[in-house]
UniProtKB/TrEMBL annotation, chains A, B:
It comes from Scandinavium lactucae. The keyword Transport does not apply. InterPro entries: aa-tRNA-synth_I_CS (IPR001412), aa-tRNA-synth_Ic (IPR002305), Rossmann-like_a/b/a_fold (IPR014729), Trp-tRNA-ligase (IPR002306), Trp-tRNA_synthetase (IPR050203). Pfam families: tRNA-synt_1b. This is Tryptophan--tRNA ligase. GO terms for molecular function: tryptophan-tRNA ligase activity. It is an enzyme of class 6 (ligase). Keywords: Aminoacyl-tRNA synthetase, ATP-binding, Ligase, Nucleotide-binding, Protein biosynthesis. Its EC number is 6.1.1.2. Belongs to the class-I aminoacyl-tRNA synthetase family.
Amino acid sequence: MTHSPSSQHVILTGDRPTGQLHLGHYAGSLRQRVELQALHPQYILIADLQGLTDNGSQPEKIARNVLEVMADYLAVGIDPLRTTICLQSALPALAELTMLYMNIVTVSRVKRNPTVKNEIQQKGFSRSLPTGFLVYPISQAADITAFGADRVPVGDDQLPMIEQTNEIVHKMNSLLDAPVLRHCTALLSATSRLPGIDGAAKMSKSLGNTLTLAASEEEIHRAVSAMYTDPGHLRISDPGKIEGNVVFTYLDAFHPDRDKVAEMKAHYQQGGLGDRQCKNELEECLQTLLAPVRERRQKYIADKEMLMGLLKQGSEKAHQRTQETLVAVKRGLGLPVMF
Amino acid sequence: MTHSPSSQHVILTGDRPTGQLHLGHYAGSLRQRVELQALHPQYILIADLQGLTDNGSQPEKIARNVLEVMADYLAVGIDPLRTTICLQSALPALAELTMLYMNIVTVSRVKRNPTVKNEIQQKGFSRSLPTGFLVYPISQAADITAFGADRVPVGDDQLPMIEQTNEIVHKMNSLLDAPVLRHCTALLSATSRLPGIDGAAKMSKSLGNTLTLAASEEEIHRAVSAMYTDPGHLRISDPGKIEGNVVFTYLDAFHPDRDKVAEMKAHYQQGGLGDRQCKNELEECLQTLLAPVRERRQKYIADKEMLMGLLKQGSEKAHQRTQETLVAVKRGLGLPVMF
């Protein structure tokens, strides 16, 4: 992939390789990427360096999940011929641009970033905030701009990151006296964040409320059986609630037949439709969705050499693209470009 | 230069290319480096990235001084065949190691670094502290360790930087489960910081009290004439004070004949030795020292292609050495090393 014409949209997304990807990733982002790769040049970054920003003392956790995530991508249908999948730590330009951008962003500006503020609180960092974590919005701006991405699929909690990136683009371009870096726009996902199977707002491995893309038939069965519905819906004949009912949230997210889901919802609210029946419908839908994903994933994860080979190919392409941006920035700053 | 045996000392020093080097640099560091290059493998880093940490908005100031500093090095006798002179921004491993080290250093730890604390105060940063400036001790640790340097010539105000580097070495090595990074020791300069010609504690271009290595005969003459002595020494026959008398501080720093300086000091303190005579002695000594430096410098700075060529050669060597360290760190962390 050569430098894309500036009129063409370029997509960048990515994941921190902190564990296997799950249904939440699929609903919120992965299936959108499968669609996007047919329309635009797309880069997907396995963000191992960013994964280390809050796992600095357990690098093995990040290292062992790089190929797990790679296998997840291929299994859901990300096509390495259409999408450039690459590894953050293999791309020196990303670190170099981060170093350059850090000089035009104040510490108080990064600290004011609402996403970072929230995450610092959630993760319970106070005196123990790693410098790398504080800096990661700048590193993300380096990622986005290095690829010349102008469309960035994110959740709405990530909008402040896009804003911060555009601030950096604006400052850098005015320093460089040329529009070297591209402004970017968030592509918000159609599906809002998928809740955990227990009804908690967020799917998270540490809460044990996820369903990975590798989940076995039995795991899917157990997850759906245990799924949170309407605790007030005691008899089948009782009217049931849809709001906060995870089974219906998942049916909305994954069932291919919207009319059928609408019908079920009406029936459930009216009374006369049992939880068991709804769960059966959902389980069938999830089994159908995940069976081929699981099968492909098993095949891929068994061939780590192939996975690493593909990741290397993508990273080489990405290296070329990101070096172009780095060289343009360095030249703009007047720094020698030696090799 | 290949990987030096671990028993061999390796030296790293450097300068931020924020202006031409001056007599203060010469007395405090450059002449020591000329001696050291005969004894040990030595790297000198033109720290343009670090220069940008507090010049983020005026990159042209840093860019235009890179070759000025290179010319200064050659002019004082740094020999590129013995010393590897290299450019920080040309060495991606330094940025990449900085990114990795940032995850094991907390924000509060960097802020506690007394050198950084002082400098933040001196430079009047408060709400406007650039992130890159806060992070620069970690970047310096990346520099030192990337070269495998175990001897670092610094002023005593820089000792906290060495301490912080060794903390990072300790943490990284324990994460890597192998002594991949080398601990380092400060080499304190024999000469303490040279005062400005006006008697101010620090030579600094912004105070206009420096004498650059490129100073003309006339500039040297004027600087010595204007030099601060003992304001109480009104008549030649009066006893004069040596303490705080810049002429004697400079004679101590630069006169080759220590006995003669000792004799002059005794005579001055006793009374009967005039300021003019002392200044003549100093001027002669500085003219002798700087004339060949100035001549060589003029020749070198006229040939920027040659300067850039030498800097490129050094940077290529340095690239190999620093990549070795980066690869060892990545392997130790379990991260893929792709190319």
